[in-house]
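QA checklist item 7 of 12: single-chain prediction sanity check.
[x] sequence parsed
[x] length recorded as 160
[x] structure emitted
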Amino acid sequence: MDSLVEIASGWLGFPAVSYNGPDAGDSPTGFDCSGFVKYCLQQAAYFLPLSPTTGKLIRHTEELFDFYGILIHDEFKKPGDLVFFSKDFIKPTHVGIYVGSNQMIHSPGIDGEVIEVITIDYLSGRKIKLDGKPKQIYSNNPIGFKRPVKIINGKRYQRF
């Protein structure tokens, strides 16, 4: 898993972009959040399955949450796990890579921003005050962690 963090860290400072469809935002010219995670997973030789809804490699935050990895309880998270957030409190709308020490690396998904490391803020029941900045919600109260899986001898395994 540390190789995933190392690969993701190599992209710090590269351009972030807003989501512009499934065929954009997943290259060093500009990463949206799920495009960044998909790119890093592929670079680290993780297997990405086909989406049952599109028949293409999973790409979107919702697909990564629904169809990829093993759900990990917060107290068992490790560097290299995927961390998910929800802007609407219903479905996953943002994803990053947990790097340890309560921090994650992610693409803010905002044109003009860059790949960055931020601290995950647990609000402990406090209300989230939205002030129109989409970035604000994405560091507060993750909705879940998932551990990426490797394919070994044709079977899916997780590493602990």
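[x] summary fact logged: Residues 33-43 form the longest helix (11 residues).
[ ] second reviewer sign-off
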